[in-house]
């Protein structure tokens, strides 16, 4: 069984959940591994999974938001922690090459339309299984191509997106006021010549027009799993130029992107989706000999950063205690012992992890975020 693993979702990322991370070392790259992602706020960029080497293994390349350049990621850098990434198991067994006749005439057509048409034709012919998500690899030649690269702007909290929406409403939908944060990412252009248009915000990078791409076609984009959760936005595609000079998100729907030829397209029907997330919990709460004791655990499979813990006495938030844990790895925990000088009488103590809800946990995971305890201090 080939599973698609999703660490967070695109929706989570847009809503500002950048406190969860999957380290590079936990992504197995043996075989044909499909994937894409976005790096952490302190090491920005887009991720592209490419097949490299004679052994058929895969590698991850990171593009830079400053100039669209790329570098291959290797373990041990200490910065390769991804708040959003999706990747498959070895998908070699699922390879379904698209016949050349379905790719003819792709030049000048929207890329998503060509890929969607190939999926429909092949499923109708029985040569491609129906699936909720299709991975894809492609080799493409462009007349011109616009790419975007994630930056710290993309790492903003939900209030930034709300602010952009309000700004657009106030401007009456004027041009240049983006409806989403993605419209404000750094944009770059690849073309045969520099258009040299005065005031053009899209920076020209060069003539690298041959691109190796990897991505996903989601039949339900509104779920926001691997693509921007907008109606009809099925295709999310990252890539690198074959000369390995540039990389990023292929903005295939941009008016400045014009496909010349789709040389190769391989589809992978992915049936099983595994959602990854951290799961913060408070356990083993007790009060003994003037000391509050408890454990802060991460029972999920993503690391969590900047984890806050609040200790509230008698529901008085005005004088609550607060702890900060810089990092809590998946499956790890911290033991806490906090002296509390409580007056004689009955007291209600409550310990809450992530009280600000900076980490977007599903409702079913939130019940273990807090524990309460009633203690009686003798007179």
Which key terms come to mind for this protein?
8-stranded mixed β-sheet, mainly beta, Immunoglobulin-like, 379 residues, 60s Ribosomal Protein L30, Chain: A, single chain, 42% strand
Task: Characterize the structure shown.
- The protein has 379 residues and is mainly beta.
- The chain starts with a strand and ends with a strand.
- It folds into two domains: 273 residues, Hypothetical protein, similar to alpha- acetolactate decarboxylase, domain 2 (60s Ribosomal Protein L30, Chain: A, 2-Layer Sandwich), CATH 3.30.1330; 100 residues, Immunoglobulin-like (Sandwich).
- The radius of gyration is 24 Å and the shape is elongated.
- Strands 9, 10, 11, 12, 13, 14, 15 and 16 form an eight-stranded mixed beta sheet that branches. The chain has a seven-stranded mixed beta sheet with strand order 6-5-4-3-8-1-17.
- About 6% of the residues have low confidence.
- The chain contains four helices and 24 strands.
- The relative contact order is 0.18.
């Amino acid at each position: 069984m080939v599973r698609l693993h999703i660490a967070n979702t695109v929706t989570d990322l847009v809503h500002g959940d950048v406190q969860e991370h999957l380290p590079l070392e936990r992504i197995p790259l043996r075989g044909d591994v499909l994937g894409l992602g976005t790096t952490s706020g302190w090491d920005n960029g887009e991720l592209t999974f490419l097949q490299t080497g004679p052994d058929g293994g895969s590698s991850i390349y990171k593009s830079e938001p400053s100039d669209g350049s790329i570098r291959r990621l290797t373990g041990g850098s200490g910065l390769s922690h991804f708040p959003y990434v999706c990747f498959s198991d070895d998908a070699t067994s699922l390879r379904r090459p698209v016949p050349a006749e379905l790719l003819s005439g792709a030049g000048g057509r929207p890329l998503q339309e060509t890929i969607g048409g190939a999926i429909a034709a092949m499923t109708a012919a029985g040569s491609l299984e129906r699936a909720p998500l299709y991975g894809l690899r492609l080799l493409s030649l462009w007349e011109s191509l616009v790419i975007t690269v994630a930056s710290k702007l993309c790492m903003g909290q939900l209030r930034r997106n709300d602010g952009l929406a309000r700004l657009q409403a106030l401007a009456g939908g004027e041009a240049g006021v983006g409806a989403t944060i993605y419209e404000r990412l750094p944009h770059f252009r690849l073309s045969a010549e520099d258009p040299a248009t005065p005031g053009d915000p899209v920076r020209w990078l060069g003539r690298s027009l041959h691109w190796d791409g990897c991505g996903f076609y989601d039949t339900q984009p509104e779920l926001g799993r691997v693509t921007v959760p907008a109606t009809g936005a099925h295709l999310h595609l990252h890539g690198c130029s074959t000369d390995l000079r540039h990389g990023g998100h292929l903005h295939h729907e941009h008016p400045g992107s014009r496909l010349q030829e789709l040389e190769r397209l391989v589809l992978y029907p992915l049936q099983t989706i595994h959602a990854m997330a951290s799961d913060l919990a408070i356990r083993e709460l007790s009060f003994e000999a003037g000391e509050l004791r408890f454990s802060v655990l991460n029972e999920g499979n993503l690391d969590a950063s900047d984890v806050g813990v609040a200790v509230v006495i008698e529901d008085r938030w005005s004088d609550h205690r607060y702890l900060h844990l810089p990092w809590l790895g998946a499956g790890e925990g911290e033991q806490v012992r906090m002296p509390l000088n409580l007056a004689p009488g009955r007291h209600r103590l409550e310990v809450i992890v992530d009280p600000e809800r900076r980490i977007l946990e599903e409702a079913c995971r939130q019940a273990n975020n807090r524990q309460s305890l009633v203690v009686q201090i003798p007179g």
